[in-house]
Structures are given as structure tokens and as C-alpha cells.
Amino acid sequence: YALFAVFAVVIFFWFSFHQNGLTLTFFARDYTRLSLFGTTLNVEDFQAANPIFVVFLTFIIIGFFGWLRSKGKEPSTPKKIAIGMLIAAIAFAVMSIGSIGLPSFKEVQAMGSLPEAQKVTPFLLIGTYFILTVAELFISPLGISFVSKVAPPQYQGVMQGGWLGATALGNQLLFIGAIFYENIPIWLTWGLFVVACLISMGTMLFMLKWLERVAK
């Protein structure tokens, strides 16, 4: 039951996180200056940010957890997952603040394209991907570890599949983000993902004592 509860919660995280393959890419196409340090970027180039940051940050996050463990202050896995959801909310809050004042997608369509002077710096997306990667490292590997620790031995494979199934279901809901992107102000689109991540975090914190008890 604890695992099913976690699966249900992380659906909302993956629904938000994997917008990097949909609405965040649309944002790169429609609202972002595609030049960085004199180099012309392609919209697809932003997709490289997450894997690069995963390689760079994994050892730092692991080292940070090890340092906390040595001090006796390492949070439990469920608490780390909740913290990861808060970090994801911060990432979309950055996007929301950075998008204030931008015209809606329909207005951009009517113009043909947004004038270069009105487009935002690519560092907005790069910074967002950086924060989202930190959130991912708090949730994805730790979630799989939690499943392995909690699942009854005879159901290990099924429960691992349940975690991946929750990820897949979150991906199936991505289209909702595209509907938001095309029909409401851009800053509000990101604000809705902030809310989704905060609801996930709040639910995890509500279940925290139960999940920590089960994990023992």
C-alpha cells in the first residue's frame, strides 16, 4: 500500500519533470534567443542540458548525502523524495517569473514569431534544467531504491514495474501541458506545474511518518 501511494504521487512529478520534452522545448522554440557566447543554438540543443547535468551532479549529490550521513543528519528516502518535489517546484517557479510579461502563444502565432528583442536569455532554460536535474537525482534513483527496500521479495519485479508504470503514466499526461501552453498565459502554465509539484510534496509529507515506519 505504501508503494502504491508513492507511485500515485510521483505521477504528478513525472508529468511536470518531463515537460522538458514538450512545453519547455516549445518555449525554447518560441520565446528563447538561440545564441550563446556567439554560438547559434538549435532548439534541440537544450535537450543536452539534462544528461550533462546528470553526469556532473550525480557525484556531488551522492557526496552531499554521504556528508549528511556522517553527521547523522541524512533525511529518510521519503523525505528526500519530498524535497526533490519542492526543488522541482522551484524550477518551474523560476520559469514562471522569467516568463512574466511575455505574450501568449496565440499572440506569438498571430505575429508569426516573437521579435528577437523580446525573447528571453537561454540561461533561463539552462538554469531551469539544472534545478530540475537536482530534483530528478533526489527522486528517481532514490525512488527505485525505496521500492527495492520496501517491496516484499516475491513482488520485487512487479513493484519495480509499478514504479516504471507510474513514470509512463506521468509521460502519458504530458499533453495536458501542451493544452495549457497554447491556451493560457505562459507564466501561468509554469505556475500550474509549480502547484502540481507542491501537491506531490505535500502528499509525501502527509504520508511521511507512515512511509518511514514501513521503510524500517
If you had to describe this structure to a student in words, what would you say it looks like?
With about 220 residues, the protein is an all-alpha fold. It has 10 helices and 2 strands, in the order ααββαααααααα. Strands 1-2 form a two-stranded antiparallel ribbon. Strand 1 and strand 2 form a beta hairpin. Helix 4 packs antiparallel against helix 9. The longest helix is centred in the middle third of the chain and has 29 residues. The two termini are about 15 Å apart.
- Write out the strand line-up for the largest beta sheet, numbering strands in chain order: 1-2
Q: Report the strand count.
A: 2
* Radius of gyration, whole Å: 19 Å
| Helix-strand makeup class | mainly alpha
Distance between the termini: 15 Å
- List the total number of helices: 10
Concise description?
This protein has 216 residues and is an all-alpha fold.
List the main descriptive attributes of the protein structure presented here:
216 residues; mainly alpha; two-stranded antiparallel sheet; 10 helices
